[in-house]
Each structure stands twice: as structure tokens, then as C-alpha cells.
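explain this.
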Amino acid sequence: MIKLADNEKILHEGKANMFNIFILRSGQLYITNKRIVFEGNGMNMGKEYASVDLSDVLSYTNSLTVTLFRLFIPIPNAIKIVSKKGDNFKFRVYNREKWLKTIATIIAENK
């Protein structure tokens, strides 16, 4: 479980995989009223934590993943988040439309 700041609450959470070019990390993805946080489950190698403040989100979109087991067929099961700093995050999640809707709602409420 992530450590929350004062007045921060979890609005949506679930199992997720964080992708970079060659590495897949398993863990939990959280959306709070202040940020998006990925916390690895301890079985990963390398960085197991990522966080971006919602005020720093430049874009959030549907994304695809490709796995060797599916013969490199793109699978529409991920979300991509780009920060204003240029950081790119890609998360494979269940029910990605709900994740994107939650992000959109929170960002709109905080404008």
C-alpha cells in the first residue's frame, strides 16, 4: 500500500504491469486525488515505483501491448501517460476505459 499525503485519498486501484522497452514489472496501480502511482510487488528487478502528479500529466491515452505469446499481435489493454517533464509511462490494466475516465474526471475537477 502506498503512503498517502495529507488530504490524499485513493480513488481507483488495481493490478497492473508497467512496461518499458524491455522490462515488464508487475504490481499495483493507484489513482489518488493528487497523483498516479505504480508500486511493484517485490518480485521485479530494477525500479519498482513510479509516481506522477496529476497536475504534471500532459496526456493520457489508450495504448497497445505486444507479447511473444500472442505472436506479436497488438492487444488493446494498456494506458499511456506522458508527463510535462517528458516521462512516458505505460501500464497494462484491466478495464482501461475506467482508468482513463477516472483520470479525466480528477484532472477536470482540479482545473
About this structure: The mean pLDDT is 88. Residues 96-109 form the longest helix (14 residues). Strands lie at 10-19, 24-32, 35-40, 49-53, 57-65, 75-83, 88-93.
